[in-house]
Structure of Glutamine amidotransferase:
Amino acid sequence: MPVRIVIPIFDGVTALDAVGPYEVLRMLPEAEVVFAAEAAGPCADGDGSLSLVATAALTDVARADVLLVPGGPGARRRVTDEPLLAWIRRIHATTRWTTSVCTGSLLLGAAGLLDGLEATTHWSAVGQLESYGATYTARRVVEQPGGVITAAGVSSGIDMALRLAELVAGRTVAEACQLAIEYDPQPPFDSGAYAKASPEVKEYLAARR
């Protein structure tokens, strides 16, 4: 059966939050991927140096099999955007899976979809996530009842998308997607989780933020 994947974007989106999962999910059999925004057209990333293009307006999207909400500084700014939150709630009612990457979980939380659930997000947004009634867990991908799946920071969206591919189409297809993008991480450093990073690295990031 065709699977309709809707990815809402906005100015200030973190591009990899959306594009990483897109590269996996677009390969699912009969996948239809829709990038939607307040209005069709380009949305700039958090630095304003790169744009993703929405092909549909949010008001033109009535349903999805998969809703995938990316994060970024724009997501943090939109946690009080009631029209967007109402749209997320409305689409969630039609989905098989409602998912987020990084601080996209803050939008799910603000929409009331994570209250009482375990969830994850970027390490810098844990307190805000829990303010919406979620229980933070440091797992990279967190699955909960009702088809709610949250992924931690930026790069974890690829892990989440591979798991979602397995749920949608089975392990063979998911592994084929992994092979197609040659996703075989061998990072040169072991500093990809907050608990692993050195004090110097944390101080450097804190100063830049």
The longest helix spans residues 156-169.
